[in-house]
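Subject: complex prediction, re-run

Hi both,

The earlier run crashed halfway through, so I resubmitted it with identical inputs.
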Amino acid sequence: MTIGTALFLLVNGLTNGAIYALLGLGIVLIYNVTRVINIAQGEFVMLGALTAVGLSTGRAAGGLTLAVLAGTAWALVALLGRRRWRWVWLPLAGGAGLWWLLGALPPWHLPPLPAALVAVAAVAFVGAALYRLTVQPVAGAGEVVFLIITTGLYLGLQGLGLLFWGPGSYSFPSVHAGNIHAGNVRVSYQSVLVLLATLLILALLWLFFERTLFGKALRAAAMNRAGARLVGISPSRAGLVAFAISAGLSAVAGVLIAPLTYATYDMGLSLGLKGFVGAVVGGLAGYPGAVLGGLAVGVLEAFAAYGTSAYGEAIVYGLIVPVLLLRVLAIRRRGVAP
Amino acid sequence: MGMLAAFALLFGAAYAQDIVIGAAIAQTGPASSLGSGEVDALKLFEQQVNQAGGIMGHNLKIVVLDTASDPSKAVLDVRKLVSENDALAVICCTTSPESLAVIDTLQRDRVPNISLAASASIVQPASDRHWVFKTPPLDSVMVTREVADMVAQGVKTVGFIGFNDAYGQGGLAELKKAAPAHGVDIVDTESFARSDTNLSSQASHLVNANPDAVLIWAIPPAGNVAQKAIQDAGYQGVIYQSYGMTNETFLRLGGASLNGTRLSVLPVIVYDKLPGSLPFASTVQDFVAQYQKVYGSAPSSFAGHAWDAGLILQAAAERVLASTSPGDKAAFRSALRDAIEGLHGFQAVDGTFNFSPDDHSGLGSSSAVMVTVHDGAYQLVR
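This time it finished cleanly. Structure:
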C-alpha cells in the first residue's frame, strides 16, 4: 500500500466515521437521558435523506406526511390524557387540513440547502413525537421493553419508508460537486463538508450542554434522574428534547451522506449498527467517546475493506467483542461491580 | 356451414380436456419485482393461446400460486399444483434458492419443470436433473460474451468486483473459467455486501492493481455505487457491468457517467435494436408488442423468461398430443419431458433453445447481446 492509498483510505474512513459519530452521539444521548437503546436510530438517517431528496426533486415528501401524522397523534394523546374530549376535533381537523395541503401543493423543488434544513426539522419533530407516543407512556419500564419498542419502531419506520418512496434508490445533489486534489490524493468537497459539518455540530452541542440552562438540565437528568427531578427538572421533557436532538443529528447525517451514496428505504439498519458499534467502542456514556469510537469504526472499516473485502463488515462488527472483553477486564481490575 | 364449424369447435372445445400448467411464482416477498412481470407474462400467454383456439383444441389453464419468495413455501406450492390441481408441468420458480428446493419433489413425482432462475446448479448435473429445465441463459453464456468482447477491445488484464452472495460469486466463478481460456489475466477480485453504500476501499484496491478492464457483477443500485466509486478513484479503463443491471434504475441513477460502459444483455432488453439477421428477433418483437399493448410498458427480462417457459411447454405439448391424451397424466408428463428435451433450434424470446439430454439450459452465445451505454440508452456493439 502506498502513502497515497493510505491517505485516501484515511480520509474516506474519517468521512464515514463522522457519519457514524453523529449516529453514535444520538444513540448515547438517548441512552443517557432515557436508558433507551435506540435500534431505530438508523431509520432517522433514512428519513432525513429521503425527505431531503423528496423535497428537492418533487417526489413524495414522506417525512412531512409522517410529521403531520405523528403531530396529530401527539396532540390527540395530550388531549385525551387531560380528558379534554371536547377539543379532540381540533387536532383531527388540523391534521386532516395539513394532510390535504401536502397533497394539494405542487411538487416541491427546493434547492439542496433549504430541502436539507426542512428535512432535518421534520425528522427532529418526528423523533420527539415518537418519544411521546412510544417511550414516555412506559417511562419506568426496563431496558428490554425499550429494546422491543425501538425494534418495533425500526420495522415500522422502514415499512413507512418503503410505502412513501418505494424500493428505488435516489441521489441527492451535492452542494458543491467535485474533488480537491492534494498531490495524488483526491478528496471530494462533500467529504470535506461532512467533516466540517460534524465539527460544527460538535461545537454547537458542546455550547448547548455547557452554556445553556436546558443543556445543563439535560446533563443532570442523564447523571441522576431522581436528583434532577428533585431540583425540578422534568425527565419526560428531557427525554423529549434528547429524542428530538438525536433524531435531528441522524437526519443531518442522512442529508450529508446522501450525495456520497444513494438513498434507499433500507439504508438505515447497517448505518445504525455501525453507529452503535462506535458508541459501544466509545463506552456508551461520554459524547467524546462516541465521536472517537465512530471515527475509529469508519477508519477500521476503510482499511479492512481494502485489505480483505470479503471480511470488511465482519471485522467492523466483530470489533465489539474484544472491546467489551477489555472493558469487563478493566472493570474487574478496578474492583467495580460490572 | 359456418355454423356447423362453430358448433363442432364448440363441442370439440367442450370435450377436449384442459392442459393444466402449474406456476409457482414469487408474487410477494423480496423477489416480487421479478415475479410480477412473470405472472403478467403467463396470464397474457394463457389468454393469447386460448384466443387462438388453445393447444390443438385443448384449453390451456395456467394455475399461479405465490411462493412469497420463500423456498419452503415453493415446495408446498409445487406439491399442491401436482396433487390437487393435476398440473401436467410446472413453471417454478422465480429465484434460484426456490428452484433448487423443489427439485427433489419434482424428480420424485416425475413432473417436468421449467425454472425461471439464473443458477447453473438448477440444471446441472443433467443426470440428477432429469425433469428440470430452465429458460434464463447461464451465467457462463453472459460472462463468456463479455470476455470475448474484452479480447476484441485489446484487454489483457481484468479486475473483478461483485456481490459476496450467490450472484456475485457465480459471476466470478465463470470469469475464472472464461478469462484464462481467452488469455485474459484476472489481477484483482473484490467483493461487497448488497447493502454496502461505500465501496471506496475496494475501488482503490482495484485501481491500484491497474487492470485494463473492470467487471462489476451486481444489481442496481449497488452496481451503480461500485461504478461510481471506481470512477471516483480515478479509473480510466473500460468498465463492464453484468446483465443483472438491466433495469431502469441503472440508467436513471448513472446518467452520463455510464457512457462507454459495456455489458452483455438479454435480447429483450434491446428488442427495438435487434438485427433482423437474428433468427429469434421477430419472436422477441412480437412478444414485446403484445405485452406493451396489454400492460402499457415494455416487459422485463423476467417476463421474457416466463413467456419462453410458456412457448416451450406449448410446443412440446403439441408434439405429445398427437400420440398421448392428457388424461393419462403420468404418460403425458413423461412424454412432455421427452418432447422438451427434443426441442432443437427452437426460437424464443431469450434466444435459440437447443435442449439435449446433457443440456437442460439449451441457450447458446446468441442469447448474449453486447451493448454499450450512451447518453442513457443502450447501443448495439456490431
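Residues 3-334 of chain A form a domain with the ABC transporter involved in vitamin B12 uptake, BtuC fold (CATH 1.10.3470).

- K.
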